[in-house]
Amino acid sequence: MTACAIEGGSAGAAATADPEAEPEPEESGDPGEPAGADGFDPLPGSTAAGRADGEDGGTGETGETGEAEAPEAPPTGADARSDAEHAPPPGRFTLTADGAYAARITAAPGPPGERAWYPERWTLDGPEPYAVPLPLDQPEEADSEVAPLADGRVLIRRRVADRQMFSLLYPTGPGTGELLLGAVGCAEMSLLPPSPDGRCVYALAAGEDHASLWRVAGGAFGPEEVARIPGRCSGGVWLDRAGRMLALDRREPGGGPVKAVAVDLGRQGEVTPLLQIAPGSNDRLLLADADSGLLLLRSDAPGHDRLGWGVLGSCLPVRFPECLRLPDVTVTPFAVQPGQMLMPESCAVALRIDGAPGSWVGVWRPAGRQLHQFAAPLGWVPGAGYWSRDGVLRLPYANGATPCGVALLDAPEDVEPSSVTGRTGGGEDGREPSAADTAPAVCKPVPLGQAPLHGAARPD
User: Fold this and answer.
1) pLDDT digits over 272-318, tens only?
2) Which of these, 56, 370, 402, 435, could form a disulfide with 47 (CB 3.0-4.6 Å)?
3) What 3-state class would DSSP assign to 41?
4) What's the first-to-final CA gap in the chain, in angstroms?
5) Sign of CA dihedral 273, 279, 283, 289
6) Cα Rg for the chain, rounded, in angstroms?
7) Is 19 exposed, middle or buried (0-12, 13-18, 19+ CB in 10 A)?
8) What residues contact 39, with CB distance under 8 A and at least 6 apart?
9) In angstroms, rounded to a whole number, what is the distance separating the alpha carbons of residues 85 and 123?
10) Which residues are CB-neighbours of 112 under 8 A, at least 6 positions away?
11) Distance of alpha carbon 304 from the chain centroid
């Protein structure tokens, strides 16, 4: 189904549509320390009150009111130089759907031309996080991709000439085991987020006229093509917990705007429209939560690219909160609080905020219409993190002092809209307050002891 465009604040609607035993983490000297010790300083317990939906301007564009509070400067002096010299280089950090495992391509410190890249798997569901290196006889290429599975194995995609090679890696005592899965004759291919079922991994090979969707792990006979979708496709967001419904951003073969579509893998890749906010708007899906139905999207329907939210299967309009429109930065959601059954407005959403000073963390709820901003832990891979059902955000990080750590942040409470806007309710039409009602607040940094910081988990 599609959604009709409406004028004013809200626009459109979101439519339906076995490895061997692993080694235990090694024990080290000091017990865990507070997260602040590793550089996770809250940036403004800062909140920006929500303003009108649908105004001109877009995420990442210069606005006319307020300025985004930048994170505090990183440590300086000998300690900061030591951390920078010994911290592993950043890489793409991929988590399983339940947050139990993560994987990345990393390298030991050293001159850029001498780094030996290798896969690394993180175990995050135990009492303490720990990392297991998975090197083989030869180093990996820096552009290889990895994806963890629910059983602890790690899928790796390697590009060899004009082919894509796939294998499963797993720890075998002191070494690394490898199970070859097969190859796909394709020059370019990218892994999609691991399937929510924990067993399958899919990859997308995008062409000019069509995209091929491949199941590269979890099938019976190695990599197999499961769908061919007309048009040029990108993105990749799972809509259910069974790993059947996949959302892709597609441009029709003849051109035109980009629209999110739903691909039903249980019906030979049947494609149905998912987002249709305005006929000529580019509507991309960024994130979805299967429990609540909350959708996070980016669209230029309001006139510029804006970050908005809607509800899967609902006829309610998509909203574009003004509090997520910050000047000179880009705001991207990366995690939604699970377990909020049928309560999309109550879900806490974690956002990556990128600006000139670097990347930091935002926390927002649709119902609260406030953006809380915090500095990220030192060594955080921007955009890596996951929520617990009780509203604790976990941010994996690695630096010179902590090779494998997780900073924990309790979702902050929102101030009642009436205390922010000076009114007892929303606008006359039930929408969010207008631009005249509120302006984004610029707050001072909150001392570490006063911030809603839950603590940090790190190896003993």
Assistant:
1) 999 999 999 999 999 999 999 999 999 999 999 999 999 998 888 89
2) 370
3) coil
4) 52
5) negative
6) 22
7) middle
8) 74, 75, 83, 375, 377, 378, 379, 399
9) 25
10) none
11) 22
DSSP string, 402-448: -SSEEEEEEPPPPPPHHHHHSSSSS-TTSSPPPTTT------PPPPG
Q: What token pair was written down for 256?
A: 């035109």
Q: Tens digits of per-residue pLDDT, 161-218?
A: 889 999 999 999 889 999 999 999 998 999 999 999 999 999 999 887 899 999 999 9
SS3 for 184? strand
How far is the C-alpha of 198 from the C-alpha of 81, rounded, in Å?
40
Query: H/E element holding 123?
Result: strand 117-123
Q: Could you tell me if residue 360 is left (phi over 0), alpha (psi between -120 and 50 degrees) or otherwise beta? A: beta
Going by C-beta distance under 8 Å and a sequence separation of 6 or more, which residues neighbour residue 192? 201, 202, 203, 204, 236, 246
How far is residue 390's CA from residue 380's CA, in Å, rounded to a whole number?
22
Amino acid identity, residue 406?
V
72 vs 80, 115, 314, 332, CA distance in Å? 14, 31, 40, 20
Alpha-carbon distance of 275 to 258, in angstroms, equals 10
Q: Which residue has the tokens 């990996």?
A: 140
DSSP string for residues in 245-308: EEEEEEE-TT---EEEEEEEGGGTTEEEE-B-SSTT--EEEEEE-TTT-EEEEEE-TTSS-EEE
Is residue 435 within 8 Å of 320, Cβ to Cβ?
A: no
Structure tokens at 43: 């940036």
- Token duo for residue 354: 């990128």
Q: How far apart are CA 208 and CA 275, in angstroms?
A: 22
User: C-alpha 400: how far from its chain's center?
Assistant: 24
- Sign of the C-alpha dihedral computed for residues 265, 266, 270 and 272 taken in this order: negative
- Total-model pTM: 0.74
Confirm if 196 and 241 have CB atoms less than 8 A apart: yes
Residue 348 is given by DSSP the state -
Please count the other Cβ atoms lying within 10 Å of the Cβ belonging to residue 8: 11
Half-sphere CA count of 446, side-chain side, radius 13 A = 20
